[in-house]
Write a structure and sequence with these properties.
Strand content: 5-15%
Radius of gyration: 15 Å
Number of strands: 2
Structural class: mainly alpha
Strand order of the largest sheet: 1-2
């Protein structure tokens, strides 16, 4: 590792400090979470008379379907993020399942390392990086 005062998230992973391909930061992550949670809530209200369990399962389903197909959930893509394996390749199908189940446990998602990767990403072998998006800079 380099000088801690000069360290930036993603440096040890070989990622750039800023711009496309750099580690996604907290604000866009939160925005993507809110964007993805809204349809889960609407569908839960429409079909399950608002069941928190149904809402959570719909949210997990959104993650499991869209991460392998679009490279991220609709929320990720709108705010300009992508989920990739550590080597930059396609996540496959199993990694998004593991990542999504751990995400719903909440604690793995809020425990981050120095590269701002949540425990759910570390266990799944994935990272959330900046990508061109509708609202990205």
């Amino acid at each position: 590792m380099t000088n801690p005062s000069a360290y930036y998230p993603g440096q040890d992973l070989g990622l750039p400090e800023t711009g496309v391909g750099s580690i996604a930061r907290f604000t866009p992550r939160l925005g993507a979470l809110i964007i993805d949670w809204i349809p889960a809530t609407i569908l839960s209200i429409a079909f399950f008379d608002y069941s928190p369990l149904a809402q959570a399962l719909i949210f997990v389903g959104i993650n499991i379907v869209f991460i392998p197909t679009l490279g991220g959930t609709p929320g990720h893509r709108i705010v300009g993020m992508r989920v990739l394996r550590l080597d930059g390749a396609w996540t496959g199908v199993i990694r998004p399942i593991v990542r999504s189940v751990l995400l719903m446990l909440v604690i793995p998602a809020v425990v981050w390392d120095q590269d701002q990767r949540g425990l759910h990403d570390k266990v799944a072998g994935t990272m959330l990086v900046r990508a061109p998006g509708i609202f990205s800079r």
